[in-house]
Amino acid sequence: MPFFEWKQTLARSLSEALNHPDLPPEKLVDEFTFPPQIELGHLAIPCFSMAKKLQKPAGKLAQELSQRNYPLGISAQAAGPYLNFKISPNQLFAQTLHQIVEQKENYGSSTFGAGKPIVLEYCSPNIAKRLGFQHIRSTLIGNVLSNVYRHLGFPVTRINFVGDWGSQFARLVAAFELWGDPSRLNAENLAPSMDHLLEIYVQFHKEVETRPELLEKASECLQKMEAGDSTSLALWKKIKDISTQAMNNTLKRMQVEFDVVEGESIYISKIEPILKQVKDSTPARVSEGAWIVEIPGISTPALIQKKDGTTLYLTRDIAGALDRYQRFRFEKHFYIVSEQQKLHFQQLFGILKLMRFSWAEQCEHLSFGTVLFGSEKMSTREGRVILLDKLLDEAKALALQECMQKNPDLANKEEVAEAVGVGAIIFGELSTHRTRDMEFDWKAILSFEGETGPYVQYSAVRCKSLLEKAAEKGPPLSSLPEASSYAFALEEEALLVLLSRFRSVLFNIIRDNEPYHLTHYLIDIAKAFNRFYYKHPVLQATDPLARDIRLSLVKGTQNVLENGLRLLGISCPQQM
Ligand code: ARG
């Protein structure tokens, strides 16, 4: 892929010129950036750190370096402390379009990650409840990152570690024993069954305020479950199965799939020896009847076993980490979980380090900001939840309205509305930096004109219909036109440069674990495409070479937009 190789070639050439032991090509290659405007150049390197090593002003160094000759016909220009490089668009066209046409859905892929197994854990809801709006961010961030790591060649294991045990779940089982109606739990009828579970869950938390003994009942329930009592376990299993099915149906709508779906409960029977191992290998001690571990640098001691002997969320995570390292020998294990669990993960990794597992360093908590829905924070306990399914339904309904307005004869309305509505939510969710809080705004995410999913889908659909029209009107574009004599207009060059950056963008995503780079990039392409298309006739171009070059650019755009959307988990309709 051009940019990647160009960066390497330039880094070698610069390193040779600078001839300093601290400035090897491997170091310089990471310093390249993209200039803010295409007129300035296609690639840039800020000269600050090089200048510092050589003890000269950065501007002066940039000037000096701009005088040199670079390989592959790349030209250089200094702009203050920056050195900007330009690649000939004719070369860029030949290489980029050739790769796109050749690799199609694999364009942008790499074998870089081969042999470096990655585990990503995300979604991981407590499944006594339905998926709510608060689960969307972990799920979507995890999904894109998994897709991108895979595209770049990493063996990826996607885990959904559902909460199917512990005091929360025990409260639901206890509530069901009190007020549940078994005839309302029915796998054929998932939504009403899940509604019933939510009702009694909310009732439990309401009544607890005046009847604190209910908590006692819930903790007895947990003890019975941990002791293997068959009646409570049968009820537990029924609730769990129904919840899992409901969860899977919702996830499917967002193209989210897992390699492993397992619950915390799988570690209950294995916890004894692991607890012993923790107690033996860390400064664990008994405090007020419970077991705690004090971890250097973390002010809150970690609780690893309760007074009544039952296990904890943290203990199950310790067991889970050990087990996953055994199974997957991961190079990196990412837990994509909200910022609120920061302490939990500090404690988890802290204990693993105290236990002297060298791989503890390879575990990382990827947190994210909160989604505010009309500035409300959601809580299931008080029954203030926005169910994810309902949200997707609503997006679909709004998308249907919008599409019908634009195109009343639209075929497959329902299918298109689902792709556009769900796509809009996914794209909107991933358009903010991962760690920032975001405000959910229907209008903003569903508009066909703003920086939205529908805008990107619409651009891809436009490319598709242009290519179809071209095929009807004349000979289809079978091979790439020979572009060496073509004078590229600025809008053509800008689009081309963006298309060639796809793989670099994917590498930036895994460098920062930041899906936002992809949504941002797709918007840039859609904008560049629309600017190009507005300015330059494609089918009506008088010069046949211009027509073929432009059609190739349209083809490349369609390919990159669709690949990018696919990595986000968004499908692209045939028509909109
Ligand atoms: N089920 C938990 C919750 O909903 C999140 C689990 C996160 N993953 C983990 N390995 N602890 O709060």
**Each distinct ligand:** arginine
- The mean pLDDT is 92
Q: What general outline do the C-alpha atoms trace? A: globular
Q: Stretches where pLDDT falls below 50 for ≥5 residues?
A: none
Quick one: biggest sheet? Answer: 5 strands, parallel
Largest sheet: spatial strand order: 6-5-4-10-11
How far apart the termini lie comes to: 32 Å
- Percent of residues in beta strands? 5-15%
- Estimate the helix proportion, in percent: 40-55%
Q: What is the strand tally?
A: 13
What Rg is obtained from the alpha carbons, in whole angstroms?
Answer: 28 Å
Q: With helices defined by DSSP (H or I, 4 residues minimum), what is the helix count?
A: 21
Structural class, from secondary structure content? Answer: alpha/beta
Question: Can you give a write-up of this model?
Answer:
This protein has 576 residues and is an alpha/beta fold. It has 21 helices and 13 strands. A five-stranded parallel β-sheet has the order 6-5-4-10-11. A three-stranded antiparallel β-sheet has the order 1-3-2. 43% of the residues are buried. The model has no long low-confidence stretch (mean pLDDT 92). Bound molecules: arginine. Arginine is lined by residues 121, 124-126, 161, 163, 317, 335, 337.
